[in-house]
Amino acid sequence: MQRLTWLRDSTMAKVGVGILLAILFCAAFAPLISPYERGQQDVRQQLQAPSADHLMGTDENGADMLTEIIHGARVAVVVGVLTVVLRILLGVWLGLVSGYLGGWVDEVVMRVTEVFMSFPGILLAILIIFITQEPSLWTVIFALSVTGWAGFARLVRGQVLVEREKNYVEAARAAGMPSWRIMVREIAPNCMGPVIVQATFGMAGAILGEATLSFLGLGPQNTASWGALLDRGADYFLISQHIAFFPGLAIMLTVLAINFIGDALRDHFDPRITGRTEAASSN
Fold first, then answer.
1. What pTM does this model have?
2. Neighbouring C-beta atoms of residue 275, cutoff 10 Å
3. Helix or strand or coil: residue 64?
4. pLDDT at position 252, please?
5. What fold does the segment set 21-282 form as a domain?
């Protein structure tokens, strides 16, 4: 229970977790809970406003918007989770190696990191998709991962520079423990707090990135992406606002929920904030 104090003490975190669980539920059971089959069209029901039959209305083809939104949660979850996992695998490892070994290894890794961080992430992702000429789900995940690992590498490197000078690392060296084991078994666990916080914000950024690419027509094809739905809704915004409103609302709520959780985790892992909170409660 001690590990969940960040959730217990934050109302916004509870709201964020509730919203995120609802989105995960929609993503996991989309075919079962959707009111209609995805792709089912009825030209007689084009651009219908929200009603009892279609709670979020219909699109320009007469397809149910709620069904599309529910299935779009799958794309958001897959992109958000896999992109962050790939960023962590690459960024954390490079940050560990760079910070622990130092020297020319540190110089090379940091210069490459600076190159990637100097480009706007979304523009680099667009360039990668143009080069591959294949705007699929996996291409989008790859493009967003390539543009986001540098932040994790720099964050972990900074943590490692502090941790490697501590007594427990010196003791591990004196015991003859190999460098890779010191990095993985000793140092890495003590760097995970900031990484977890960064991962939450990174997930929100990945979902926004995928929505942006899909809005530009560079996202996954033939899938119910919230960004693609928003793009289609923009064409009919003056006629039927609900087509753009509900995908935009889904994106906003998802990103907001993740940010609520990230803020609570940041406060939990930051000893300065934790110390001020405990001092205020004791007074």
1. 0.86
2. 10
3. strand
4. 93
5. MetI-like fold (1.10.3720)
